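[Meeting: bench + compute handoff]

Bench side (C.D.) handed over the final construct sequence. Compute side (W.E.) agreed to return the predicted structure before the next meeting so the bench team could plan truncations. Sequence as handed over:
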Amino acid sequence: MATSSDISDRIIEAVMAQKLPPGSRLGEQQLAMLFDCSRTIVREALTRLAVRGIVTVSARRGWYVIEPSQDEAREAFEARRVIELGLIRSMKRVDKTAIRQLKAHLAREKAAVKGSDVGARSYLLGDFHVCLAECLGNSLLADTLRDFTARTTLIAMLYQSSHDAAQSCEEHVQIVAALEKNDLALAEKLMSRHIGTVQAALRLQSTADPLAHLREALAPVTRPGKASTGAAQDLHTSSHKPSSPGRRKKAAPPDEPSTYLGALL
């Protein structure tokens, strides 16, 4: 029989492996059947994850994986930047055992990047930061980073990150090389650049234009061989009320996010 810790750990792993996308429903009864335990234990696990900011609960929908807002995305990356740069800055020297552990993790990363298992690749790339905190001797920050890494993984899925896995792995290699040379200033600089690169790859709307998302969605549709009409004016520049477009087909609803557990097991 699984414990609440077992269940919460498996859910975190599934999130970091991109097997549970934002908005995934987590039914208490289904999880209880899956892990062969009571709903009380499942509820305890989900409550723990809610406190850690990974899942949330709604009176109507039940439990589901969070869907971070743009502000929450920025805050999560800023939190990771403060924690990880501070962790490196506080070190005086990185011992050889820690370097060996980090290099072993990098070897698994490289193999996963070359392989076809997207879940393993995603998990290992995120877990590098957790491993770094553990190797530098701070288990408390390692636990905190695990939660923030899971959250930024959800952010990457939600906002369609274009960051390249091979590039991310190479940046990890450079950070470990700097740590091995005991060049902590360079390691801190490389980590700051790495987190900034990952964040920059997100497709976040500019906060300067609160109507950016709606403006993009309602922009005129370009049809081959057909000029745009007065009814399809650019919403950014037009100051006139458009003419009646007539009867149009009802737009198809957007794709729904995964509604249950994904490939948790």
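W.E. noted at the follow-up: The domain at 4-65 is CATH 1.10.10.10 (Arc Repressor Mutant, subunit A). C.D. will use this when planning the next construct.
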